Amino acid sequence: MNKICLPKNAHVHMIGIGGIGVSGLAIVMSGMGYRVSGSDLHPGGMKARLESAGIKVYAGHHARHIAGA
């Protein structure tokens, strides 16, 4: 698959965004123009990098974090 089938203005919320794989995908999708947010029980050192890319990172998981996603 070489396409993402989401509207360009889509809001994507990723669980486990502090991990190396999901954080990389989040940065790529943000760079492609998607609105990206994510949550992780322990965001760790990736939080600053993700936030500098315009990605909102939440510590912990809660339904209110995915409003609009």
Summary, kept brief:
By secondary structure, the chain is α/β, with parallel strands linked by helices. The protein has helices at residues 20-31, 46-52; strands at residues 11-15, 35-40, 56-59.
Structure description:
This protein is α/β, with parallel strands linked by helices. The protein has a domain at about 10-50: 3-Layer(aba) Sandwich (Rossmann fold), CATH 3.40.50.720. About 30% of the residues lie in helices and about 20% in strands. The chain is built from two helices and three strands.
Keywords, separated by commas or semicolons:
28% helix; Rossmann fold; three-stranded parallel β-sheet; 22% strand; alpha/beta; 69 residues
Count of individual helical segments: 2
Largest sheet properties: 3 strands, parallel
Structural class: alpha/beta
CATH superfamily of the domain at 9-49: NAD(P)-binding Rossmann-like Domain
**Percent of residues in β-strands:** 15-25%
Helix content: 25-40%
Which overall shape is indicated by the principal axes computed on the Cα atoms? globular
Radius of gyration, in Å, reads 11 Å
What are the SSEs and their pairings?
Layout: E1 11-15, H1 20-31, E2 35-40, H2 46-52, E3 56-59
Parallel strand pairs: 1-2, 2-3
